[in-house]
Design goal:
- Keywords: Calcium, Disulfide bond, Glycoprotein, Heme, Hydrogen peroxide, Iron, Metal-binding, Oxidoreductase, Peroxidase, Secreted, Signal.
- It is found in: Secreted.
- Belongs to the peroxidase family. Ascorbate peroxidase subfamily.
- The protein has 14 helices and four strands.
- The chain is an all-alpha fold.
- It has two domains: about 25-160 and about 305-335, Peroxidase, domain 1; about 170-300, Peroxidase, domain 2 (Orthogonal Bundle), CATH 1.10.420.10.
- The strands form two sheets. Strands 1-2 form a two-stranded parallel ribbon.
- The longest helix is centred in the N-terminal third of the chain and has 15 residues, at about 40-50.
- The relative contact order is 0.20.
- The model is unreliable at about 5-25 and about 335-350 (pLDDT under 50).
Length: about 350
């Protein structure tokens, strides 16, 4: 069933299985009557930004992930610091790292013009991820909608829940299990690392001093190691950017898994999926590497499942008028638009 005039050409549309939900009542046609142009507006903004910033689709998918893993998919990551809010934007996995916050604000501005007070910032994050998959030639993610926005943020939980790029497989599985996500979800969602960039800072130990050994990570292909050392020299600029996928850096595809098979996973947390001896993730990596349809199907199902974590519906939370502040604070400050506080880089485990 199609609810909007959002046309997707040349993509694999996959609906996936039943999502994990906190008794959420989300619906694909939630805005059919109240804001029927919502998909088109989100697409228009993200597509325009992506013309000059091809990294943005990957950044928006990651922003959605970092929101959902903290308090659920409630746009808590968008809240700025106030007297009563300790922003998640300065948590260690987010600080000087997350991108796309201003794009979300651009979308919100356009939606407030078209249908004021209707579309939540949480749903904007969701739709931005959906559009980003499309723009990166990935699957069409038919997310159900109707999320509402949180009144709080939780920096402590952001530091605790978001997987780190140096996590081993046991740690990765535990972080995903907390969110109700299983091993297949872990491997499928990690496929978002088939596009985007990471700063040298987060791979230097793998290149020069893995686990304090003074040597590189033995699971890293030696030729690839030399290439990475050229981009990230020891003692060089830590903010140099490296493509997650050296073959198709701006395309969401199965090449991520093929890279793992030849020891070209960029982060330790990537390569762990294939190089951990006897791991049950190895067969899933092989499956996704051998068939893009299989990857797209699982990626779609896992994204939708993740998108239903801890959502607020009904009368819970609110529909923020401005994504960086709860409505009470926006009214106090008489805010029309506000820049978010953290807007550079792209790194983490997804």
């Amino acid at each position: 069933m199609r609810c909007f005039g959002f046309i997707v050409v040349g993509l694999v549309a996959v609906l996936g299985g039943l999502p994990f939900s906190s008794n959420a009542k989300l619906e694909p046609c939630f805005y059919k009557k109240t804001c029927p142009q919502v998909h088109f507006i989100v697409f228009k903004v993200v597509e325009k930004v992506s013309r000059t910033d091809p990294r943005m689709p990957a950044s928006l998918v990651r922003l959605f992930f970092h929101d959902c893993f903290v308090q659920g998919c409630d746009a808590s990551i968008l809240l700025n610091n106030t007297a009563t809010i300790v922003s998640e934007q300065q948590a260690l996995p987010n600080n000087n790292s997350i991108r796309g916050l201003d794009v979300v604000n651009q979308i919100k501005t356009e939606l407030e013009k078209a249908c004021p007070g209707v579309v939540s910032c949480a749903d904007i994050l969701t739709l931005a991820a959906e559009v980003s998959s499309v723009l990166a030639h990935g699957p069409y993610l038919k997310f159900p909608l109707g999320r509402r926005d949180s009144l709080t943020a939780n920096r402590t939980l952001a530091n605790q829940n978001l997987p780190a790029p140096f996590f081993n497989l046991t740690q990765l599985k535990a972080a995903f299990a907390v969110q109700g996500l299983d091993t297949t979800d872990l491997v499928a969602l990690s496929g978002a690392h088939s596009f985007g960039r990471v700063r040298c800072l987060f791979i230097l130990d793998r290149l020069y001093n893995f686990s304090g050994t003074g040597r590189p990570d033995p699971t890293l292909d030696t030729t690839y190691l030399k290439q990475l050392r050229q981009i990230c020299p020891q003692g060089g600029p830590p903010n140099n950017l490296v493509n997650f996928d050296p073959t198709t850096p701006d395309t969401l595809d199965k090449n991520y898994y093929s890279n793992l098979q030849v020891k070209k996973g960029l982060l330790q947390s990537d390569q762990e999926l294939f190089s951990t001896p006897g791991a049950d993730t190895i067969s899933i990596v092989n499956k996704f590497s051998s068939g893009q349809i299989a990857f797209f199907k699982s990626f779609s199902a896992s994204m939708i499942k993740m998108g239903n974590i801890g959502v607020l519906t009904g009368k819970k939370g609110e529909i923020r008028k401005q994504c960086n502040f709860v409505n009470k604070k926006s009214a106090e400050l008489d805010i029309g638009s506000v820049a978010s506080e953290s807007e550079e880089g792209l790194v983490s485990s997804i």
